[in-house]
Design brief:
CATH superfamily of chain A: MetI-like
Strand content of chain B: under 5%
CATH class of the largest domain in chain B: Mainly Alpha
Number of domains of chain A: 1
Order of helices and strands of chain B: HHHHHHHHHHH
Radius of gyration of chain A: 22 Å
Largest sheet of chain A: 2 strands, antiparallel
Strand content of chain A: under 5%
Distance between the termini of chain A: 34 Å
Shape of chain A: globular
Structural class of chain A: mainly alpha
CATH superfamily of the largest domain in chain B: MetI-like
CATH architecture of chain A: Orthogonal Bundle
CATH class of chain A: Mainly Alpha
Strand order of the largest sheet of chain A: 1-2
Oligomer: heterodimer
CATH topology of the largest domain in chain B: MetI-like fold
């Protein structure tokens, strides 16, 4: 059992190192800085610039967070401080289901509902033409996918606030909303930040759903309605074909390694913060 | 004034919650509305016939069985690893030990690693070991994906166990191993919840099996053969320009969604049962 325990701890390192060694050839061949900042992507000529993919990933994930955050905060406050027990019981399976629906179903729904909506209704107000397969579509679909994660973590964070604090505020004549604003939100601010970072890292890595709605054109998107091509989609779309070219394979492994490092870093930071919060309130 | 603010925000909050509920209904509604006309008995009970991808007869039995095979194998692997681990960090190691803290932390991070990274890593591993895209490759990769999910949800429940039960067992002279067996029985509903959650996540994930399990129109009969999976089947059918094939993708999506619904509700059933036991 100790063996399994050690194996689990080392597993993360094993993944990291094997991706690193797979990515090493391309990092030796090209300058790391060039790889990250060049927008020139011509694998068959040996040009590997990851900038369009990195920008696309950031763009889509940021939109997702901006959409998801207000909904999640408001809903978690509602569930935590306002909703009756029965409403809460109805809502729990809703959050469960949203987090349980597979990415492919979200992607399918995105192509059926969001893409036409953008192409027919929203985009014509802003740009001449958009296929709907765009940064915005990816952002909306991703937002819905990360909402359950945000809500469940925020509920945990709110729950860690001692009841005496909110009771004190309420007994001084503050309304519920004032208590929420001045006590709960202020007290749980680090937790909300941690939850956001965690959700952001989930958004970075989401593959299939985003791949299906964001158009997959290797360019730096100039508006919400341009197609984009995030890193995970790059890996997923090209993996089968690149085996004949070692540098191409290495480049894709570099993408996976990049994703891995960012996600591990973000996850580590936010989990650490959340653990601290939990610990602080357990002993007090 | 403060009561006005109170009212406004209450309405906004209810609105936000209602929109989230509405989106869920919208998603499920769209999938069922689009897929229901093409959902036939044949879809579930037959493998793709000749010309299936051009619109002629056949079903997605290949994908359903492939998914079931892969998730079963992955489940066995991850159960064999995660049950002993959770028992170890909860009942063998001293309470709040540093080692269990580090293990939990690495589990949290493993849980956050995107499935595409597991897919790429699994593929690299398979190349290294000389395995082609096959059932075995899919099982290993999906196993890696669901292991942290299972460990974390099992650990969450194991942590809630009152400490006096193990103490009582130990003071009666049982060995730690015997104690673990008793506690495992105690944790059964929690283990069921963990399994259902992990299966739900594993069966719906496409990015892990994309390069590792391959795709085939037949039902795999050995570990070395490629296996189709339900999410990939939906994805490939959607890519077809033929309308009937696309409609079948929607129908396949209903099959997957129904599986997920059943898993999710049973998970909730088992976890509520567990909570009843606790109080």
């Amino acid at each position: 059992m100790l063996g399994i325990a050690i194996f689990t701890m080392l597993f993360l390192l094993v993944i990291g190192f094997s991706l690193f060694f797979k990515a090493l050839p391309i990092m030796k061949e090209k300058n790391l800085w060039v790889l990250l900042t060049s927008a020139n992507w011509k694998p068959f000529k040996g040009d590997f610039g990851f900038l369009p993919y990195i920008i696309s990933t950031l763009y889509v994930s940021l939109i997702a967070i901006i959409i998801a955050l207000p909904f999640s905060i408001l809903t978690s406050i509602f569930l935590n401080s306002y909703a009756s027990r029965s409403i809460r019981r109805v809502f729990e399976p809703v959050v469960d289901l949203l987090s349980g629906i597979p990415p492919i179903i979200y992607g399918l729904w995105g192509t059926l509902a969001i893409v036409p909506l953008i192409s027919n209704k929203i985009a014509p107000h802003f740009v001449d033409f958009s296929t709907g397969y765009s940064v915005l579509a990816g952002g909306i679909v991703l937002a819905i996918m990360i909402i359950p994660l945000l809500i469940s973590i925020m509920l945990e964070v709110f729950r860690s606030i001692p009841k005496e604090m909110t009771d004190a505020s309420l007994s001084m004549g503050a309304t519920k909303w004032q208590t929420v604003k001045k006590v709960i939100l202020r007290k749980s601010f680090p937790g909300i930040i941690a939850a956001t970072v965690l959700a952001l890292s989930r958004a970075f890595g989401e593959t299939m759903a985003v791949l299906m709605v964001c158009g997959n054109i290797a360019q730096i998107p100039h508006s919400f309605f341009d197609a984009c091509y995030p890193l995970p989609a790059l890996i997923a779309n090209n993996y089968g074909e690149m085996l004949s070219m070692p540098s191409y394979e290495s480049a894709l492994m570099f993408a996976a390694f990049l994703l891995f490092i960012i996600v591990v870093l973000f996850n580590g930071l936010s989990r650490f913060t959340l653990n601290q919060i939990e610990k602080k309130y357990q002993f007090s | 004034m403060k009561y006005l603010e109170e009212k406004i925000f209450k309405i906004v909050m209810i609105g936000a919650a209602a929109i989230i509920l509405g989106v869920l209904i919208y998603i499920l509604g769209t999938i069922f509305y689009k897929g229901f006309p093409s959902l036939t008995w044949e879809m579930i009970t037959s493998i793709p016939g000749g010309g299936f991808y051009l619109g002629s007869e056949g079903g997605v039995l290949n994908a359903i069985t492939g998914s079931v095979f892969i998730i079963t194998g992955a489940l066995i692997i991850s159960l064999l690893i995660s049950v002993p681990l959770v028992m170890y960090i909860n009942f063998y190691l001293p309470h709040k030990s540093i080692l269990s803290g580090i293990i939990r932390f690495s589990l949290d991070i493993l849980f956050g690693v995107p499935s595409i990274v597991y897919g790429a890593f699994g593929f690299a591993l398979m190349v290294y070991m000389g395995i082609r895209a096959s059932l075995l490759g899919g099982i290993i990769t999906v196993g890696m994906l669901i292991m942290p999910i299972m460990m974390r949800s099992l650990d969450e429940i194991a942590r809630l166990q009152p400490r006096d039960l193990p103490d009582a067992l130990l003071s009666l002279g049982s060995t730690k191993y015997e104690m673990t067996k008793v506690l495992l029985r105690q944790l059964m509903p929690g283990l069921m919840t963990a399994i259902l959650l992990a299966v739900g996540r594993g069966i719906g994930d496409a990015a892990t099996v994309l390069f590792t399990a391959g795709y085939t129109d037949n039902i795999p009969t050995s570990l070395n053969q490629p296996a189709a999976t339900l999410p990939l089947s939906i994805f490939f059918q959607l890519g077809s320009p033929v309308e009937e094939v696309q409609n079948r993708a929607y129908a396949s999506a209903i099959i997957l969604t129904v599986i997920i619904l059943i898993l999710s509700f049973s998970a909730r059933y088992f976890s509520s049962k567990f909570q009843k036991n606790k109080s």
